[in-house]
Amino acid sequence: MEIPADELxxxxxxxxxxxxYINLNPLQRGGVLSEAARNALDEWGDGYSVCDFCGGCLDQxxxxxxxxxxxxxxxxxxxxxxxxxxxGAREGKFLIMHAIAKEGDYVILDQNAHYTSYVAAERAKLKxxxxxxxxxxxxxxxxxxxxxVIEEVKKETxxxxxxxLLTYPDGNYGNVTDAQKTGKICNEYNVPFIxxxxxxVGRMPVDAKKLNADFIVGSWHKSMASSGPVGILxxxxxxxxxxxxxxxKYKIKExxxxxxxxxxxxxxxLMASFPYVVERVKNYAQEVExxxxxxxxxxxxxxxxxxxxxxxHDLMFFExxxxxxxxxxxxxxxxxxxxxLKKHGIVGIKPGLTKNFKLSTYLMxxxxxxxxxxxxxxxxxxx
Length: 383
Hints:
It is a single chain. This protein has 15 helices and twelve strands. It is α/β, with parallel strands linked by helices and about 375 residues long. Strand 3, helix 6 and strand 4 form a beta-alpha-beta unit. Helix 5 packs parallel to helix 6. The chain is globular and about 65 Å long. The termini are far apart.
């Protein structure tokens, strides 16, 4: 079937408005490319561009230096014995669950877990129990509750759960649970512990060994200044043969990774940004201060930050009855906040949200913070 040429014009020029504005989207602030990564886009943009000198195994490619990156620098950065690049954090979680647990086993998730943790467990045909959060307004996870849920599984099945997972921090409220204590409890019960670092690895210092994690996954397009989708999986050496078992027929292909994972621009931009990311995580205390600053400014306007306080992450969740009430009579209705922020050069809060919304201050300049704070004040005072 022939497609009319004029119908294809929409694909010839696609532009992204967020590029021109201050972007508050938590999904994107940690994924803004470094200058080196942006410079690599054109040269490495063609298909499987890293595969020119591939002998059949992605993580053994020497030019570009994928092998050294994956087997030397990533484990050092993550605090693990072994590491692999994946197509995203969700793929890493599923890989671990599928390789380590058996159908019908239990996995423990925190109640704030991302939906992909649940879906990964479903796909691996596992049963799920939750460690509940404290409810509004903080929604905190208590590490001690992992012990209670592990005991619950043991009582029900006669054995501990196959795995336990903590979201660090969670993508709803940005709560940074005590992962070290959680991991210690899991270790005492001999329950392998997964740390979902989608919003931590690349934004803040994370060391899996110090946090007692057997496994760690990351989302590098969210938090490592790279194009996506791309993620990471790190693990202790004792799990290497289970996670990265080779195919009987295709001897160098790792089954759980389906032979190869991310290739092309995702891994190239990841490597290009890596030196920049290694340095930026050292400044995370400053990023926390930025978040606390904006939180304080918004709370003075009646826009209330939910989640733990004082806050320890750049991702924040806010509730505002005031903004919702304004939307009920404003000519733009529930889209008024999006439109008013855009007039001030700000995007990233989803169109239609007023009563509840998330935002991130990661890597914002002092000038940008002031613009955002002043914009919210003007919108509240004048609407």
